[in-house]
């Protein structure tokens, strides 16, 4: 292999850290959604987290998901419609666990890589956590506009990565 080929096949940093986030997500025991998040300062990995029940408490595999139903306004074929959605509320979201298990000082000016676009609550907490940038892969349309407005007003870089393929067997279908 030539040097050029070596460089081309070497993972860029976005891919490298998003791959780690997807590997971390495989630890999740909520079968509805496997989410992973990592905290990166410069090029240094400072924390990893996934969505899960509090430690020592029965998780979704043991006790089943804790489902709540809610209605969301969605545009279907150009018409706005109320759609019933189910959500598991047993787990602490990956981003929230990341904040619980990292230090404020480590987070100042850092980047969070997360497999899924943060929900409103996570985005709100991340906005107050010291981080400077959020990179996500899978979109999460609920409250997306509110989240983007919040990020703009906080000056947090909020971006997705294009043409990214998660590592094999790490990405499971998301039930939303
Ligand atoms: Zn669950
Ligand atoms: Zn969340």
From TrEMBL:
It comes from Paenibacillus cellulosilyticus. It comes from the Bacteria. The keyword Flavoprotein does not apply. Keywords: Hydrolase, Metal-binding, Zinc. The active site is at 95 (proton donor). This is dCMP deaminase. Zn(2+) binds at residues 93, 119, 122. PANTHER family: DEOXYCYTIDYLATE DEAMINASE, DEOXYCYTIDYLATE DEAMINASE-RELATED. Its cofactor is Zn(2+). The keyword Hydrolase applies. InterPro entries: APOBEC/CMP_deaminase_Zn-bd (IPR016192), CMP_dCMP_dom (IPR002125), Cytidine_deaminase-like (IPR016193), dCMP_deaminase (IPR016473), dCMP_deaminase-rel (IPR015517), Deoxycytidylate_deaminase_dom (IPR035105). Belongs to the cytidine and deoxycytidylate deaminase family. One of its GO terms (biological process) is pyrimidine nucleotide metabolic process. Transmembrane segments: none annotated. PROSITE patterns: CYT_DCMP_DEAMINASES_1, CYT_DCMP_DEAMINASES_2. GO terms for cellular component: cytoplasm. Residues 12-158 form the CMP/dCMP-type deaminase domain. GO terms for molecular function: dCMP deaminase activity; zinc ion binding.
